[in-house]
Amino acid sequence: MRVHQLPHALGLGIAAVAMLAAFPVEAKTISVAPGGPDANEALQEALILAEPGDIVELGAGVWKLTDGLSLDVDKVTLRGAGTKDGTGSILDFSDQQGAGEGLLVTSDDVYLTNFAVLNTKGDGIKSKGADRIVYHRLRVEWTAGPKETNGAYGVYPVESSDVLIDSVYVRGASDAGIYVGQSRNIVVRDSIATENVAGIEIENSFDADVHDNVATKNTGGILVFDLPSLPQQGGHNVRVFDNVVNDNSTPNFAPKGNIVASVPTGTGVLVMANSRVEIFDNVFENNGTANVMIVGYRYPYQDDKYQPLPRDIAAWNNEHGKAGFAPAFPGGAEIAAAMGGAIPPVLWDGAGSAIVNDDVGVLSLNLPDVSTPQSEAKPSPADLKGEAPTPLPGITLPAAMEAKVR
């Protein structure tokens, strides 16, 4: 029984009510079933009426939804009824009327698990300012495959601290399948990103581990970017390790004007204008442009605080399979022909500083230095056989977040 139901019924005084209010309220499970003309309203009502600690449980089946959903209550679990790939509870937005997200979360300590989101007009699942959020065993997909009209992002946490993305599958995003932006303390693991423009993207973020994922058949597998004119910039301390990054061969289908529209088809890992990025123990295979690209930001910008150079990028102990056989950047085909049919697996534009200790070739394009407003010093060139830096520490998330996915 909830405290707010007691005072008048029992004739309790103010002091007694205050004493009762000090005790925790028992959490409840709110079960919602698909089907019927009011399914959209019923599910949204459940998300509005949920209280901290509650579980909103999706019944098995296909939900035909016409409007996006939102959650702004802390400490709520949204749980599907199905298998780990989300096939049991499917939120189908094929008939969505607006152009917004399928689900927008703006509250803290939220746990999303075991459901699918299909064919949203905008992003699949977005969270903004949602600290300690967990995306677990979710599927976000545009079922017709790569199309410019698909939503931009599959799962999209932004402006958050402590983000865990675990066992997520995303296909068909016209920007990034798994995207984390302007956040800190991030783990992306055990997930699959396929047939997106960017499979996984860490942008303008601090302290991230991206590991044990599969990025395949995207335009670019894993991107680590830092962009100007955003509230948080100076991305740094990102580790990309123990991933399989292969066959990223999907032609770029991003809408014109998007920064990812410039990602060359056939890119494995692309680092742009970040610092302290470590790329190690990954398996690369069949990426036509390059397995690893390291570049500066080479576009106009009006932001005196922005640093466009990649700095202290390190790659070591990666396994490099076939790469560089179809470089999709201007002049790439001619360079490959001159080098016997393929360019080396690691491609550097010539700006910033990097150490590559993998036993493979590195091609520098020797492009002019990217200007850096904060310093007129010429950046150090890439050192192909320098000492690897002191390894970054791994990311530690709050124990309560890890406990949810065990």
Automatic annotation (TrEMBL):
<feature type="domain" description="Right handed beta helix">
    <location>
        <begin position="100"/>
        <end position="225"/>
    </location>
</feature>
<dbReference type="InterPro" id="IPR039448">
    <property type="entry name" value="Beta_helix"/>
</dbReference>
<dbReference type="InterPro" id="IPR012334">
    <property type="entry name" value="Pectin_lyas_fold"/>
</dbReference>
<dbReference type="InterPro" id="IPR011050">
    <property type="entry name" value="Pectin_lyase_fold/virulence"/>
</dbReference>
<dbReference type="Pfam" id="PF13229">
    <property type="entry name" value="Beta_helix"/>
</dbReference>
<protein>
    <submittedName>
        <fullName>Parallel beta-helix repeat-containing protein</fullName>
    </submittedName>
</protein>
<feature type="region of interest" description="Disordered">
    <location>
        <begin position="370"/>
        <end position="406"/>
    </location>
</feature>
<dbReference type="InterPro" id="IPR022442">
    <property type="entry name" value="SO_2930-like_dom"/>
</dbReference>
<dbReference type="InterPro" id="IPR006626">
    <property type="entry name" value="PbH1"/>
</dbReference>
